């Protein structure tokens, strides 16, 4: 719950709308430029006279797929960054790093907990389980006051 509240409090929805809006605009600018370039070079051979010809659709799909493939590491990094921020917000709100780590272990039921660095960059749009557990334990080390055995606070006496 704290994680999802973090997305709301840190305005991730609006930031993502802006980020992906700019990315889509760049994608359509690339599509316009690349289709016109391809048609100037090969259009007569393909029998396509302009971008308004329906026969240009397979080329447009190919070029948008290429753009999407090239920008995937960028979009994944953006989303991973926001997810990490929301994780930290959730930890600050709940102060339950062990609970966070236990939930993160469950990620292993449907995806790899410890991917290689390039694998995470290209295929993961959320932090890996390893990254999330490490962050939770780092947060625990930095934010939880350790109790010494046999002290009044460790025994529940205040």
Can you describe this structure?
The protein has 158 residues and is mainly alpha-helical. The protein is built from 6 helices and no strands. The chain has helices at residues 2-9, 12-46, 57-94, 97-105, 117-123, 129-143. Helix 4 (97-105) runs antiparallel to helix 6 (129-143). The chain is elongated and about 85 Å long.
Rg from alpha-carbon coordinates: 24 Å
The average pLDDT score comes to: 91
Q: Which of globular, elongated, flat, extended, rod-shaped describes the shape? A: elongated
Tally the helices: 6
Number of domains: 1
Number of strands: 0
What separation lies between the terminal Cα atoms? Answer: 31 Å
* Main beta-sheet annotation: none
Estimate percent helicity.
over 70%
Strand content: under 5%
Secondary-structure element series: HHHHHH
Low-confidence stretches: none
Tell me the structural class. Answer: mainly alpha
